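Many introductory courses stop at the sequence. We go one step further.
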Amino acid sequence: MKTDVLSLENKKAGSVDLDDTIFGLEPRADILHRCVVYQLAKRQQGTRKTKERNEVNATTKKFGNQKGGGTARHGNKAAPQFRGGGVAHGPRVRSHAISLQKKVRRLGLKHALSSKVADGSVIVIDEAKLKDAKTKAAITAFAKLNIANALIVDTEFDEGFALAVRNVPGVDLIPVMGANVYDILRKDKLVLTKAAVEGLEARLK
């Protein structure tokens, strides 16, 4: 499918063909959901930890009388029912990551791109460069393109552009090789450079 290419001044700068096998699929919510769950589970730290019975430093001597105490005949202060004792079945350090086939992850990225195209939320620009590499200039350019909450994808970002956009709220930069389902879906707009379109097609074909 053909789509217009714009400059950062919101002027037409040609057109580009988007591959229908990547940008023209019928979005499937089940695949997108699986990919998002996979990503969020993988980045979850899983560092919560409580001391269990064998890790608590407490007496293992019988601390009460055999008879007449009115309680059970305990022999370990580290038991979970005592104050300061270990925690029964508490959280342990572990990985929350789940497995997902590489072909499903690739398909998920295609469906994420296609969903943005279907919503009319994709903007293709000729290049991500500013004459005046300042945050104020970036905000002005984004206002012309009606960009307030967006993910900008390029093969390699110009250093001045990256510094200018770094302080713009709601706008994130990501290279082609880092493009992922979660980051694409969580932003209102997806801004691709012509080089990014070629890079994504080369990556996903």
